[in-house]
Amino acid sequence: MHRALTIQELVRLIAGEVYGKHALRALALTCRAFHEPALDGLWFFPDDGLVNLVKVLPTDLWEVAGMSETGQETLTVREPTRPTTQLDWKRFDFYAHRIRELRVITNLDKSELPRTLSANLFRWLVSARHPHRLLPNLQSLIWKAEGESGYDDSAYMLVGPHLVKLNLDFRDSCEVSDEHPPTVLLRCAQRCPDIRNMCFAAPPLADEEPIQGGVFAPFKMLTTLKLRSPLTHDVLVDLSTLPNLAYLQVDLTFTSDIEDEIILPGRVAVSFSSPNLTFRTLVSLDLNMPVDVANTVISPYRFPQLQNLHLKADRATNTETLSETFELIRERCDHTGLNAIKIDGGEHAGRDEMGAQAITAASLTRLCVFRHLRVLEVFIEACIVLDDNAVKEMARSWTQLEELSLVSMAKYPWTNPTAMTLSGLAHLARYCPSLWRLEIDVDTDPATVPEPVKPGGGFRNRVLKRIQVPRCPALGNCAKTGAFLHAIFPNLRWITGSKGSQARSWGLVQEVIIGIRVASEWEKGAGSQGD
Questions:
Q1: Whether 52 contacts 58, CB under 8 Å
Q2: What's 144's DSSP letter?
Q3: H-assigned helices in 242-336
Q4: How far apart are CA 199 and CA 49, in angstroms?
C-alpha cells in the first residue's frame, strides 16, 4: 500500500470524489484503506430511511408483516419481543453513527416506497435502549408525514445535539392533532437547540389553532426558518429577538378560506411603536399570504438589514392595500440595503373589479428612496398607470436596476390607460445601463412616438435583449416604433406581447428590429471590407 494512503485526510478527500452507491460499495470491498470512508459515504444519506439499518439487527427481533397491493413491504417488531443485549446492537451501531442525513416518509401504502416501518417497530426502536441516541451524529432530518403511520408525533425522538437542519412536514398527516406541532417543536428545542435551518409545515387540523409564543425562542442559532402554519404575533416577536435569523418565510396559503385574523394578537400585549421590535439580522423576508395580512406582519417591525422582500398573495389585492404596502416598505426598510422587491398581488378578482382600479405613479414612486434597488416586480390584476415623468424619476433613482417587471392582468383596453410612451423607455435606457429584463406596458400611439434622433439624449442600454409587453398592443407605424427601440436598445432581439392580436402587433415590430439589425451588421461588414 502506498504511504500516501496512510494519510487519513487525503484518503477521505479521494473517497469524497467518488459518486454513486455502486462505486462506493466497490471501493469499500476492494481497498482496505478506503473501507471506512467508503462506508461513511454509503451510509451518509440512506435511501430507504431506517429500513436498511433495521435489517442489520438479528432477524429474531423483526419480521416482514406483509406486503401491500402496491408491493410495499412493512417491517414490524417480532412478538413476543425478547430483551436485547449489547451484542445485538453491535452491527447496528457500526452503521448508525455514519448517518448524517435522514429522510423519513411515514406512509404505509405508497408504491414509490418499497419498504417502510410499522408504528410498533419504530417506537420499539427509539425506546429499546433509552436514553441511548439512535443516530448520534445525525445532522439533518427530513420528516414527511403522510396518511396514518401511527408515529408522526414522534419525529423528535430521532434528533440529537448535532442536528443543524430540521424539516418537519405534517401537511398530509391524518393523525397529528392541534396540540402536537408546538409540542414536537419544544421537544426538539430541548434535544437540539443549535438548529440553524428549519422548515415546519403544520397539519391540516391545525388551521384554527395558531402556534403561540415561546415555541421558537429557544432556537438561538437559527438562521433560516420556513414556516407554514397559523401563528400569533407573539411568534413574530420571538423571531425578532433571535440573534442570527437571516432568512424568514411565512406561508399562510394552506386554506382557501383564510381570513385576516389568522395572525392573531398573542397573550402578550405588543406595542407597535416600540423601538425594540426590530429584525436586526434579517436579510430576506418571504410572506405568502394576502397582502393586507402581510401589512399586519410588516407594520410593527423595522428591518435595518433587509435586502430581499417577496410578498405573494393567494387572492386579489386592491390598489389601496398595495399603496399601503409600498408606504410600509418605505418606512420600515433601510433605504440603502433593500435591493429586491417582488410583489404578487394574487388573482381571481371579481369581474367588476378587474381593471376598475389602478396603481399610479404616486404609489410606485414611494419606492424611489431605495437607491440600490436591483429588482422590482409587481404583478396585479389592476391597471398599472404611469407617465414618462414618473418613469424618469424611477430610472434616475434606480441606476443599478437589473430587472423591472410591472405586469397588469387587467383586460385591455383599460379604463385608466397608461400614459407612459416610448420616451419613458428611453429614460430607462439612459439611467439603467444594467437593465436586462423588462416587462412593462407602453403607449405607442402614433402621436406619442418621438423621432429616433438621439432618443434618450443618445444614451443606450446594450444589455437588454428582450422586452415583454403584458397588455398594450403596438399601435401606429411599426417601422417607426422598431427604429426607436433599436436606437435605445441596440442589442434588443425579442419584443413580445401576451396573446392574440396584441402579440401579433408586437411581432411586426420585432420583425422591423431584426431587419434593422441585419442591415446594420451588413453595413459594418461592408465597411470593414472597404477598409
A1: no
A2: E
A3: 291-298, 319-332
A4: 19
Residue 319, judged by CB atoms within 10 A of its CB (0-12, 13-18, 19+), counts as buried
Q: Under a CB-based contact definition with an 8 Å cutoff, are residues 64 and 74 in contact? A: yes
pLDDT, greater one: 263 or 371: 371
User: Torsion over CA of 413, 419, 425 and 430, rounded to 10 degrees?
Assistant: -170
Q: How far is CA 379 from CA 283, 285, 312, 333, 524, in A?
A: 23, 18, 9, 21, 41
CB under 8 Å to 158, separation ≥6 — which residues? 102, 104, 126, 134, 135, 138, 141, 143
Do residues 144 and 112 lie in contact, with contact meaning Cβ atoms separated by under 8 Å? no
Task: Answer yes or no: are the C-beta atoms of 359 and 383 closer than 8 Å.
Answer: yes
The pTM of this model reads: 0.87
Report the SS3 class of residue 23.
helix
CA atoms within 13 A on the CB side of 285: 29
For the chain, give the number of residues.
Answer: 531
Residues 528, 531: Cα–Cα separation, whole Å: 5
Distances in whole angstroms, Cα of residue 36 to Cα of each of 30, 40, 95, 285: 12, 6, 10, 43
CA 141 to chain CA mean position, Å: 19
Kindly report, residue by residue over 95-152, the tens digit of the pLDDT. 999 999 999 888 755 545 667 888 889 989 988 888 889 999 999 999 988 767 778 7
The whole-angstrom separation of Cα 245 and Cα 92 is: 37
211 secondary structure, DSSP code:
B
Map 412-473 to HEC letters: CCCCCCCECCHHHHHHHHHHCCCCCEEECCCCCCHHHCCCCCCHHHHCCCCCCCEEECCCCC
Calculate the alpha carbon distances from 208 to 199, 213, 443 in Å.
20, 16, 48
Could you please report the per-residue DSSP string of 178-208?
Answer: TTHHHHHHHHHHHH-TT--EEEEE--GGGTT
Q: Are 387 and 419 in contact (CB under 8 A)?
A: yes
Whether the ω angle into residue 80 lies within 30 degrees of 0, i.e. cis, is yes
CA distances from 324 to 86, 225, 318, 320, 497 (A): 65, 26, 10, 6, 30
Residue 84 in grid coordinates:
436485547
Strands 140-147 and 115-117: unpaired
Please state, rounded to an integer, the average pLDDT across all residues of the chain: 84
Q: What is the C-alpha end-to-end distance of the chain, expressed in Å?
A: 68
Residue 71: the pLDDT is: 63
- Report which of residues 207 and 429 the model is more confident about: 429
CA distances from 523 to 245, 388, 506, 527 (A): 57, 34, 26, 6
* Paired strand residues for 384: 359
Residue indicated by cell numbers 424611477: 394
Whether the ω angle into residue 131 lies within 30 degrees of 0, i.e. cis, is yes
Question: 3-state class of 286 per DSSP?
Answer: strand
